[in-house]
Amino acid sequence: MATSEPLSAVPVSARPYQGHPAGIVSRGAAAVVDLLLGAGIVAGLYLGVAGVAFIVSPRRFHWPSNLGWSLPVVGFVVAVAYLTLTWCVTGRSYGDALFGLRVINVHGDRVNVVVAVVRAALYVFFPIGLLWVVVSGKNRSVQDIVLRTSVIYDWVPEQPRAVAAAHH
Amino acid sequence: MTETEIPDPPSTALVVVPPRWRPPVVVDVGIEVASTMTRGVVAVTRTGLRLAAPFARLVVRPPVVPQKHWPQSRFLALADHGRQIRERREDQLAAQLKVVVPAVVGAVVDWIDLTALVVNKVDFDRVIAAIDIEKVIDQVDINAIAGKLDVAAFIEHLDIDSIARNVIVNIDLPEIIRESSGAMASETVIGVRMRGIEADERIAGIVDRVMRRRRGRNSPLDDSGRPDGDV
Q1: In angstroms, rounded to a whole number, what is the distance separating the alpha carbons of residues B75 and B67?
Q2: Cα separation of A104 and A101, whole Å?
């Protein structure tokens, strides 16, 4: 006695948008959230390093300075690692989850590690590529076009697409 | 006489044709002779009547006699009287049949085991096949029947517990609870997401208008939900 339409917790007003490519505002806001999170992680690392230095020799403690290239390198590594991990494991970073977005590949599945790493690196190096969403007819950024990915509205926490694919 | 084959009746025919009985040849010869003779007699009679007609007319309607004294007028009067008698007898017979027929039929039905007769002789498969169930259902007032149902008594007989348990198992209730009570579905998050979608739509609409796109970009994807390869 299975019904054709599965029960869904998604509000009725949002249902028509599920699975459709997300626009620039949602994606931009999600990116900002991720950026703040990344900055927070880097700041946390900095405080951690300073804390360790303080514990090791409290007398000679001074805030780490003259960071040089280490800050951008750490920032890059943190951002790429964070985005890769989240896109591979759940299909969405924290910012994506907040705005109900999901990164999918051309088959509608989660992206694999290679695609996720390259995509993350491209976003960190060339964030302005996101703005192509405004112009694109399919709401795709430069990174999406290069890697044949999409970002869709998908408010359901699990991934029903993969479940449905397994049944077919 | 040539013999023409009667085709078998179709299976849905209401009349059952029994197997044909074949009489001896002598009978067929007799029938043929009788038929020929009858045709001859009819022809002779018809010719005789045609020849005799003018004389008969002269007899029944003599030209010099007034009409009321014609033999024809007398015949008609007799016929009229006879008709009245016949009609009276018919009425009497009909009245008697009304009494007699039910009594006879009742007696016959009493003698015969009607149920056994129907069971043995009626081909129910064909009867059912001939019924237009759709039409019958159309004529039935389901609502009126439903109105007469004792729903409470009906429900009492149902094992609601097991039905509910089955439903819960089938709909994966824990998953629904997880979905609806999770942080992702809280009111604030829903509000933020909806504002995001609305803003996306507005900006996409403006850009599409500026770029003179005839179809908006948020037209539904194809069934697979697969994004197209173009830009």
Answers
A1: 12
A2: 10
| Measured distance CA(B56)–CA(A64) in Å, rounded | 151
Average pLDDT, chain B: 81
pTM of the full predicted structure? 0.52
Query: What pLDDT sits at residue B161?
Result: 86
Non-local CB neighbours of B179 within 8 Å, separated by 6+ positions? A8, A9, A156, A157, A158, B185
Query: Which candidate from A11, A23, A150 shows the least CB-CB separation from B201?
Result: A23
The whole-angstrom distance between A41's CA and the closest CA on chain B is 22
- The residue written with tokens 């705005």 in the block is A99
A50, HSE (Cβ side, Cα atoms, 13 Å): 11
Residues of B within 8 A of A8 (CB-CB) are: 179
- B72 Cβ partners below 8 Å, 6+ apart? B60, B61
DSSP string covering A55-105: HH-STT-------TTHHHHHHHHHHHHHHHHHHHHTS--HHHHHTTEEEE-
